[in-house]
Amino acid sequence: MQKPKVLVVNDHAASLFALQTILLNSPQSHEYEVLTATSGTEALRQVLAHKFAVILLDVSMPGMDGFETAELIHSHPMSATVPIIFITAYYADEMNRMKGFSHGAADYLITPVIPEVLHAKVSVFIELERKNMLLEKQKGELAVLNKNLQVQQMEKLKRVNAALEAEIAERRQAEERAQALATRDSLTGLLNRRSLTEQLEHAAVRAARQQEHLALLFLDMDKFKSINDTYGHDAGDDLLVQMATRLRSAVREADIVARLGGDEFVILMEGLPSYAAAAQVAKKILAATAKPFNVQSQQVRTSVSVGIAMFPDDGQTVQDLMRSADLAMYHAKQERRGSIQFFHPELNARLIERRQLEHELEQALENEEFELYYQPKVDVRSGRVAGVEALLRWHHPRLGVLSGGQFMPAAVETGQVVPIGEWVIAQACAQARAWQDAGAHFPHLPIAVNIAIPQLYANLPEVIYRALRKYQIAPSWLQLEITESLVIRDVEKATSVLQEISESGITIAIDDFGTGYSSLSVLKSLPIDILKIDQSFVRDLGKGAGDNAIVAAVVNMARALALRVVAEGVETEEQLAILRDLGCDEHQGYLFSKPLPAAALGEHVMQAIRA
Asked: Is-above-0.70 flag for pTM?
């Protein structure tokens, strides 16, 4: 049986030779023959003389160009169905690509051509032709068979033919799927990062030529990780698909919506007259995404933070424009989730400092730059130290000593909060062991450590039990503090994890109480032992009846729930006297002691005992 033939048409000798060489160096080159032509006229002569599996046709040729040649080839009955792949270095824009497809092109490639891509595309048509040639051969053989077997053989031929057609259709579908995967996000069907970059390059050229603006909007979903962790990855995928639908409906039909990956989306809008127009579209997007989403029979609320960069003001290259929009989105997320921010140059300096801090944070544990300070919690009635709160400090080699509030947001963003939290728990247990070994004269001081929401999803009970076993201390030496606002974000998960920890004998406190707006029913469902009144309420004690009433209400509620009450931020004797009259159990603040390193705290406690 003859081999399928490939025709390469190019008037440029070097290009013709290069394409011929690529084809001859293919692993499947033994399966086909390669013929060449240097003009459209010569190509027509070859088509009349041979049957080709595929034709690789140069667009730019003198006399008769590739488009005219393709039209003539397909106008002849003998070659009407021959697949044609246009190859060009000069007609790479979308208009010429569409022109090629309108002239019957099976594909349209831009030189320099990647050999593997060309091999893959040609091999599909070679295989089709080989199957067709085989089919023709089988038909010829069937013609000479005995007429008595004709019906049986014809049925067999039908089955073979159907199988071949199914295989061909499957191959075509596979190629279409591969093409879609190369340009589309498989989950949402939106353009992917690669396609967005190509579209943005073309849009920037058009905008520069026509002296128009274009806007690039970077969108990041707020609380997506928490939703994904709470409801599962299938629910997260469903939410992303719904978000993509809402974004498409919120913008113009001509606007491009893409998904970069994770929960990040990008919208490209051309022909905008001003910054105000871009902001108007962004507001429409916020409104469209603010409504609850129905995910697995649950109503889920989220929002998007939007960063906007305008061409050419905020970047004259694709990379600069995308970076500017990303920076603006990051700034929006830091300032207020669910907000809109335009890019401005000051963001660069902030980002550099932030990313440097994040990089240094990743090395801090390994470099042993963390230390725990301890602030006493004092019994209001007796004045004795009843426990301590462990507060993380970072001995930063460049910025000096940093408190947790200065770097923990970056730790949450980079995923460092879980390993840092494990270190804090282990270090607190080690200190408890040291104080226990100090002898009977040193008081029993439970150490309270602060817990972040990500730790609840990182096997927190096992982390705690491992540290307790390692340092051989009783659970009564350890307390956990978790903020009210974090608890109400996922009450079900918090209740489950904290219940397991509470049953082991570890005391649990709600920190910053009064700022999270949790309901009484939520408090009753949680296995907590202590309420810590936020210092914002303590600060104004004695200045007005309203602040005293708030603290009194918290104390009365705690009494009803059989909880102890600790007041934070106590700095004056007047505040302490009011707290004593209101029935508060413990106080914590600069009145007794600021946070101290372990050694200094130990000396302070012993001095208080001796006094």
From this structure: no
